[in-house]
Amino acid sequence: MKSSRRAHFKAIASAKKKHRSDFLSSATPNSLWTAKRCAFGRPPQRFPDLPGATDPAEVAETLLHHFFRPKPPPPSLLCLIRPKDYAPLTSEEVSRALAKSSNTSAPGPNHIPYSVWRSVHRLNPSLLPSLLDPLLTHGFHTPSFKKTLGIVLDKPGKPS
Q1: Burial letters for 110-140: b for 16+ Cβ neighbours within 10 Å, e otherwise?
Q2: What is the three-class DSSP state of 157?
Q3: What span, in angstroms and rounded, lies between the C-alpha atoms of 159 and 18?
Q4: In this predicted model, what pLDDT tens digit does every residue of 21-38 receive, in sequence order?
Q5: How far apart are CA 144 and CA 160, in angstroms?
């Protein structure tokens, strides 16, 4: 049984060897590519299948939602409670803070001179306190001010 089994597999191996040599002896450029594909198999898929995505727009949408998930909405400002010992910022405190600054210097990265802030405060004294008060109260600006740059002025008598 062993000898007949060896003879059978030997016959298969010699038939394969003969077929390969015949194939390569009569090979053309196209058939060489076929031989290479047969030898190495099919290449793996470069892009995995995505469930529910049949066209490029759906694939892009699926990838965007997978890697860049939508951010949850920010917490409502209505749920924030003002600390009991907090006193609202007054326009006099802003005036005193602006009076200490130089007209030629800018307060920070926005490069707006203090003279402009003084003019804004002189024209509308309640504007700057209303913009800075939520920052001092809650520690962050409201979502409507996300793209703005706020400079916190120290309140006199309070540690910074």
Answers
A1: eeeebeebbeebeeeeeebbebbebbbbeee
A2: coil
A3: 93
A4: 888 788 787 777 777 777
A5: 26
pTM: 0.37
Give every CB contact of residue 157 below 8 A, 6+ residues apart in sequence.
none
| DSSP 8-state code for residue 110 | T
User: Following CA atoms 137, 138, 143, 146 in sequence, which dihedral angle do they give, to the nearest 10 degrees?
Assistant: 80
pLDDT over 60 at 3, yes or no: yes
CB distance 135 to 94 below 8 Å:
no
Q: What is the pLDDT of residues 102-158, one digit of tens each?
A: 777 766 666 777 888 888 888 988 888 887 777 777 666 566 666 666 555 554 544
End-to-end, the C-alpha distance of the chain in Å comes to 95
Q: What pLDDT is stored for residue 159 in this prediction?
A: 47
106's CB contacts (< 8 A; 6+ apart) are 112, 113, 114
Q: Tell me the C-alpha distance between 20 and 36, whole Å.
A: 12
Contacts of 128 (CB under 8 A, 6+ apart): 91, 94, 117, 120, 121
